[in-house]
Structure formats: structure tokens, C-alpha cells
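Second attempt. The first submission of Gamma-tubulin complex component had a stray character pasted in from the spreadsheet, which I only caught after the job came back as garbage. Lesson logged: always re-copy from the clean sequence file. Corrected sequence (166 aa) follows.
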Amino acid sequence: MKVRHQVYHFLSTLQQYHHCNLSDISWRRFQHSLKHQVKDMRDIEYVHLCYVTDALHICFLSNETKPVATIIKSMLQQALEFRSCFKSLNDLSESTVNQLNLHSLINFSQVDAIRTRFESNIKDLYILHSKSSKYEELGLSRFWGYLNYNEYHSLKITKDVGCFYF
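This time the job returned cleanly.
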């Protein structure tokens, strides 16, 4: 259940981050620029290029954010693999289901391997975050703030490493 919660929290946080920053903030900034900065076609091209650049950065698709994208892609793959840890009850007969217990439906060694890789990826995100600018309006700093809103990950990581960052 803990791994399920961690994976779900990551996925819902990633969705919330993209929705809030791409659909709301960046899009509204683009609309505002269209209304107040555009006087000719070159202005439209420039304002659109700024929007696309922001979008690439927000989605971790820019050259500067490739390390973050690599980690997130790995975590999304682990979320998919996590689904395969559970046997489907639909494929079994009712008599077989009655004889099974919960432990026979879950591949716990695979869940543990996913947990280990997932937590390692969280640590990697933390390291990238600690090296990045904390003053970025959009990007990893904002995403880490959403993901680590109660400082669960940073406290766990610093406790595991044995040092504290001030």
C-alpha cells in the first residue's frame, strides 16, 4: 500500500503540476501577451515562441531539463510495471479465487524492486533540485515543491544519507 500511495502521489502531482503551470499560468501569460504586446506578425511569432519555450521547460522537454525528463520517464515506466505486480481476478474461476489469499495475488519481490528504483529516482530528483536555482518561476523547483509539500521526501532522503541541508 505504501508503494501504491507513493506512485499515485507522484502521478497525481505530475498531473497537477502540468495542469496548473501549463494550462493555467503559461496559457494565461500567452493570452495576456497576445492582447498587450502584439502589434504585427513578428510580435505574434515572438510571443508564440516564448509560450512554446515555457511549455517545453514546464514539461521538462528542453535541453536544460533532460536529466529531469529521464528520471520522470523512468518513474512513469515503474508505475506501469507496478500494475503488472498484481494478478487479475477476472482470469480466475470463482473456486480458485476463494482458495487464494492476498499474498498469492501480489508479486511482492517485484513490488520491492519497483519501490527501490522509485525511491532512488526520488533521491535523484532531490539532488537535481538541490543543485538547481530555487528562484525559477517554473520547472523543477515548482514541481519539487508540489511533490514534497510536507517535506516528506527531503526529510527521508537527508535522514537516509545521514546529513541535513540547511
